[in-house]
Design brief:
This is Putative esterase. With 292 residues, the protein is of the alpha/beta class. 37% of the residues lie in helices and 21% in strands.
């Protein structure tokens, strides 16, 4: 006879619904702090968008590797995953607003009777992270402000690039997985050009961009012959995820103070790449020995 079941919790992780100072809907913050004393310099910290979808993967990837730093080069750190008070992995409406670079546009509802979809709120979201979330995290754990990382996937990858260009000293490691660089006729390029025209002194950061093998012009085996095959092939001509990410990495790597690279992950599509790149973010954010 089995004993009564109990909830399976994410280790050493708390959940906080933070209402921004100016009011409005709260963000759900998943905060993982290792259950041990902080290093003298403070914990390295990894901030992540789409927190509901990534927090469990990130915590377990770190815990599994941090116990063997000589073999994995991963140590413990703080993880801050920014999500929404919903049951599912995503809040598509709010993330469209939060992660889209300004000025943004208005689109038809995701479903009949729903609200219009707006983009362009990335600066407000970034301001919340810098002015409210970071102090909140510092009140719960001692942070090494010289070892802060940001991870985002898809629209979140676009937001990571926007953040790099808008506030390049906010983080030291940036992971843009499958970034939607194509979005709104490459609106991100305006911010890239402003950044390149005024690269701040003292900038020293690494940028990791990536895409999956099946985000190229190649279809995944299970997509070949499917009802939407032709539509997918046409969309690939627009998104060009791997091409745009690779070219962006080359351009950023030529920028003083930046070390940028592109990674293509075999066998992965736009969604299956999520756990792979979450792990890459963990490895980069919590590297026990940083290459020089």
């Amino acid at each position: 006879m089995s004993k009564p079941s109990t909830p399976a919790l994410i280790a050493d992780t708390t959940v906080h619904d933070l209402v921004p100072a100016h009011g409005g809907d709260p963000w759900r913050i998943f905060l993982h702090v290792p259950a041990k004393p902080a290093p003298e310099a403070g914990w390295p910290v990894l901030y992540m968008t789409d927190g509901n979808a990534v927090i469990g993967t990130a915590v377990d990837a770190m815990r599994a590797q941090a116990g063997y730093p000589l073999g994995t080069n991963v140590e413990d750190g703080v993880i801050v995953a920014i999500g929404y008070p919903v049951a599912g992995a995503y809040d598509s409406l709010r993330r469209s607003w939060d992660l889209g670079p300004p000025p943004g546009k208005t689109y038809p509802p995701f479903h009949d009777g729903g609200p219009e979809v707006r983009t362009g709120g990335a600066e407000k979201f970034l301001t919340f992270i810098e002015d409210e979330l970071k102090p909140f995290v510092a009140g719960h754990a001692r942070i090494d402000t010289g070892r802060q990382s940001l991870y985002g996937h898809s629209f979140g990858g676009l937001f990571a690039l926007y953040t790099l260009f808008a506030r390049p000293l906010a983080f030291q490691t940036w992971v843009a997985a499958s970034p939607a660089i194509y979005w709104e006729d490459r609106a991100i390029d305006r911010f890239l050009q402003r950044f390149e025209a005024a690269v701040p002194e003292g900038l020293k950061a690494q940028v990791i961009l990536s895409a999956g093998e099946y985000e190229t012009q190649k279809l995944a085996p299970f997509q070949i012959g499917a009802a939407d095959e032709a539509k997918r092939l046409e969309q690939k001509k627009v998104t060009r995820t791997d091409e745009f990410a690779r070219l962006m990495a080359e351009r950023l790597d030529a920028t003083p103070g930046l070390s940028a690279g592109f990674e293509l992950h075999a066998g992965e599509n736009h969604m299956s790449i999520l756990p792979v790149t979450v792990n890459r973010a963990v490895q980069a954010a919590f590297a026990a020995r940083v290459s020089t």
